[in-house]
Input
Amino acid sequence: MLTQVIINGLLKGGLYALMAMGMSMIWGVMNIINIAHGSFIMLGAYITYWLFVGFGMDPFVSLPLSMAVIFLLGWLIQKYLINLVVQADIFITLLLTFGIELLINNLALVFWTADVRKVQVGYGAANFQFLGATVPYVRLAAFIMALLISAILFQLMNRSRVGRAIRATSQELDAAKLSGVRVGNIYASTFAIGTSLAAAAGTLWAILFPISPTMGGILTLKSFVVTIIGGLGTMLGPLVGGLILGIAEALGTNWFGSTYENLISFVIFLVVLIFMPRGILGSRR
Amino acid sequence: MGIAVVAVAAALPFILNNFTLRTATDILIFAILASSWNIIGGYTGYASFGNIVFFGLGAYTTAICMTTLGLGFFPSMVLGGLLSGMYGYLVGLPILRLKGHYFAIATLGLAEATKALVQNLNITEGNSGMYLPIPDFSIDASYRFFYFTSLGVLLIMLLATHFILKSKFGYGLIAIREDEDAADSIGINTTLFKSAAFGLSGFFSGFAGAIYAYQQGFIKPEPVFAVTSTVKMIVMAVFGGIGSLWGPTIGAITIELITTYLRDYFLVIHTLFFGSIIILAILFAPKGIYDIFTGRKKLGIVYFLDNIRKNRV
Output
């Protein structure tokens, strides 16, 4: 029984990690807390849903497509909107991304109605037994996909030119400018990568859970929680934070009941913020 | 000037119909919230994204006092304010050590945690919500009652803020906003001052929650603790002018009139418009309309472009 709970939590934690990775990147590099993060998760989920319903495209196949579309959208939003106020007081960017969230969610509600939808893949029920626990293949596949995308991002950030430019910009803005980094474009790319990670998480979310235009709000909050638990400024932080949150939630709801899920995550969040604000793996800055 | 505004505000109930008076009351409630936010976000410089928690606590305290304890409205309202204020002060002690974004999301998390707690407690009747006693006077009289109560609370709080700003406490808060380390080094007890400011912000927000609860007659965790309302009060404060006494009230009047109009005429897409207003206000008038109209030499397109030029990359 307990193994089942922990495995469920771990598999969900992989998705949390992927969500938070996008948020953590945007936050760490540009000092922007993207309140609209959940909206991009929602958009990714809906792109997958419509490709599945319209063309019968498998979610694992449409994943790169949904990431690409949201990458482009994120790039445009950062380049032509957020870049205009990125140096202003902190609550200015918070409010701006909140405005973007309202806009996206309302449009989704108008076009797609408030109906709760679900991507029903044919292989959804197939599962295997592991240590006495039932593990659906699709959940495991989503988990592995989340880890794979994280690994690719890791390589991208460490090895590629763009990755180096992003890290340089985050460490020393003026020095990066002087070395010829085009900060405006790097910021746009960072935001685009962050939102495309959100879209990937949304795609995987749509395979496992029902989706609706208002699903994003709580996922934005969960991404905060994971980012804080793991700590800013490291690539591994969101991964560790995501798995911890997934397992903690699963254990907590197992002991106290499912209505306590949110209370548990926010109490963990506040405790971590107060007692170790840099998170478990956070770097000193 | 101030007296003239108050006179007009006091005369409004005798001119407006009940529907419009209700909108005016909503404006006053938001003016209290935005002005409360201004104490911690504007004067002290700590951008709280969870001030709605005080509104919710005030509303729930009032509901519990009036139903379970059988108290009258005014004692319940004061208790609601006191409880919210205490909560702000006590929670402020640990979380006001965080700065910038960390403080902002800590307060957001605080509001969400409190909401989740209210959803799970028996005394607050969880997600099913609470009914309050219905005021026992005529419909016309009740509209006026809520209007004058809100107006009274707003005026008292603005007056209090006015005097606080001229006290050692007020100067201390502004010193903290400008440079916290420097404030600390000249002997200001920054932890105490910040927590007191957060408590004060909570105290007045609690009153707004109490009035809202009694006026609605029924409260539920979701609308009462909605994050959107926190953002709304910040937008009002920003739009009116942060760190000025009247700014948040001016912002509340403007924003609430616009959103009410949008809700009445474009029900389905009113949040889309509200989102667009936030974006445009942030882009073109980040210092608020107060700044546009006071002592600006260059107005028009140049002013707006200047704002953008300063903060872009």
Observations:
- Strands of chain A lie at 127-130, 133-136.
- The two ends of chain A are 42 Å apart (CA to CA).
